[in-house]
Every structure is written in C-alpha cells, then in structure tokens.
Amino acid sequence: MEHLHTLSILVENKPGVLTRVAGLFARRNFNIKSLTVGETEDISISRMTIIVDAEEVPLEQVTKQLNKLINVLKVVEMPPAESVERRLLLLKVRADESCRTAVLQIVDLFRAHVVDVQADTVIVESIGSRQKLEALLASLEPYGVRELAQSGAVAIGRGSKSITDQIKEN
C-alpha cells in the first residue's frame, strides 16, 4: 500500500541544493515518486515539490533533517484537502483516419488539447490531477500510445497565506 506525501520545500536557488535534498531521501531508502523544481516569485528562492512514498514516522525524521540543511528555508507537507496539485502530460497517440474521430472525442471529453497533428498520430497535452491523467491515458491506450512524457507534480496551498509568507515570519 502506498503512503504518498507531497512536500513543498523552499530552498536557496544555488547549485548543488537539489543533489543534497534528493540525496537525503536516497540515504533513507525512500522512493521519490515525483520531483519538480522551479523558481518562485523571488528568483533567489526555488520551490521543490516532492512526492514520496513513506510511512508517517520516518517522513517526520526526514523532514527534520531537511530543515537542518543549510540551503533549505522551509518544508511544508501539502495535504490534498488543503492544496491544489497539478501535473502535465504529453502523449503521442496513433490516430489514423480509422480512429482519429474517436481519439479526438476522448481528448475533448477530458478537456485536453491536441498540440500536433500528423497523418497517423496526434500529440495530446493535458494538465490535471494524477487520477485525471491516468484515466485519460487508460482511455487512449487502446488506440496505441506511441510516446509519453510527463512532469512531476506542482502543488500550492489553498487560502490567502503562502509558504513564502511563512519564511518571512521566521
């Protein structure tokens, strides 16, 4: 059984920080399911969104160790009810004349977008939750998935308070 947790980690935007953070998880033998990094509204700060499969107690220990790393500014767990999480999926699907209409109907049903059309394939872009993207993929698999690329998750807390507000308070 999976015990997925989404962590949002603010770090100084410096070389080597990603290696140190990921290494901490590797040393504890945690599998990182998803990892996304990008600058925040302050270019000197990056935000890592990490989804990890871990039990509650070992995750607390890793969180404490993350907070001790010199370039880590803030670590926050993002519970699903208190945050919005999204991923990006690009999918190349077989869509020749015999099945193109059916493929396009599925794309439309999932509010995805066709971003490239060739004689026998289409490339579909979809943004959404893990469940939505898995359902889209399952619906298109019978037509022949030729290639798939997906991003890790990004997450942000609901409400007016931001994670960057929290580091300013400390």
From TrEMBL:
It comes from the Bacteria. Coiled coil: none annotated. Pathway: Amino-acid biosynthesis; L-isoleucine biosynthesis; L-isoleucine from 2-oxobutanoate: step 1/4; Amino-acid biosynthesis; L-valine biosynthesis; L-valine from pyruvate: step 1/4. One of its GO terms (molecular function) is acetolactate synthase activity. GO terms for biological process: isoleucine biosynthetic process; L-valine biosynthetic process. GO terms for cellular component: cytosol. CDD domains: ACT_AHAS (cd04878). It catalyses: 2 pyruvate + H(+) = (2S)-2-acetolactate + CO2. Keywords: Amino-acid biosynthesis, Branched-chain amino acid biosynthesis, Transferase. It is an enzyme of class 2 (transferase). PROSITE patterns: ACT (PS51671). Residues 6-80 form the ACT domain. The keyword Transferase applies. Its EC number is 2.2.1.6. Dimer of large and small chains. Catalyzes the conversion of 2 pyruvate molecules into acetolactate in the first common step of the biosynthetic pathway of the branched-amino acids such as leucine, isoleucine, and valine. Belongs to the acetolactate synthase small subunit family. PANTHER family: ACETOLACTATE SYNTHASE SMALL SUBUNIT, ACETOLACTATE SYNTHASE SMALL SUBUNIT 1, CHLOROPLASTIC. This is Acetolactate synthase small subunit. It comes from Scrofimicrobium canadense. The gene is ilvN.
